[in-house]
Structure formats: structure tokens, C-alpha cells
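Q: Could you fold this chain for me?
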Amino acid sequence: MAPLLSANRLIIMQITNNAVVQFHYTLSDASGELESSRKAAPLLYLHGHNQMLPKLEAALEGKTAGDTFEITLAPVDAYGERRDDAIQSVQVKHLQGAKKWKPGMVAWVNTDQGERQVTIVKVGMFKADVDTNHPLAGKTLTFALEVLNVREATAEEIAHGHAHGEGGHQH
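A: Sure. Below is the predicted structure, expressed as C-alpha cells.
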């Protein structure tokens, strides 16, 4: 989206609540790059609606299209510390994401708090032991971000609580 012109002044939109933000990111830890949106479409989110890590969203506040920056988050500000007591037994029929399971695979399980990502530790005929820690728990993470676009959210996006369009939620 082109910047707005007002009385011959260029107005650049900053990231604030109810702004739709499109960005690329590269995520790294001490061992190197873990993932990057540059291999696919950029991400799109509605700022101020708890759709990402709070410290990451706070770092994006006030940025504009074209801004690039890095932020490093300690485990407590990212996906939490690893908990050794986070192994649970679940019925295999509740695991989503594959037909056959092996240790180390990532699955999704529906819980009372919504979908949760788990890692298979041990699998039997009917039950599996799963690690409920997030796969990135316990890691210090560095996000390299490039803000591509910032625009005002539509009334529908605000009502739905998420951005619409490529990289956002599709209806």
C-alpha cells in the first residue's frame, strides 16, 4: 500500500493497535537458523490482538514499512523454559498430523485450551507418551524482521480479531 499524502506531506503509518502488518522473519537460536518466512509468503497479523509473542509484538510497535531489526528473546519471553515433568500419555487416535507415529515426530492434540503442539516420545499400539513442551521451549531465540507493509485494519478484520488476505486468515 502506498503511503498517504496529506497537504503535500508524506504520512507513514506506524504499527499501532488495529494495524494490519505484513512482515518477513528469520528465526535463529545458538545453533543457527531454524526457520524463515522468506521461503514462503510473508506473514500478516492484526496488531494488538495477542496473535504473537508479547515481547515480539511490543518490539514491532511504532515500526513502519521498510524497517528491519533483530530482537533476541530469553526462553521466558519466547516459548518458556523446558519442563522435565511435561510428559503425558494420550490415546493415539487423538494425535493429528500423521497416520503412523515415531518418536521425535510433532503432532497436534485438541485440548480444553485449543490445539496444542506436542512431540512424540514413545508410541505404542493405542497410547503414546508425548512431550507437551513447545519444541522451542528452553531456547534463546533471535528474530530478524523486515516490515513490508502497514495498513489500517478493516472493520471486518477488527470484528473477526485477525487479518485477512495472503499470509493472514482466509475465510
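A (continued): Residues 12-79+137-160 form a domain with the Chitinase A; domain 3 fold (CATH 3.10.50.40).
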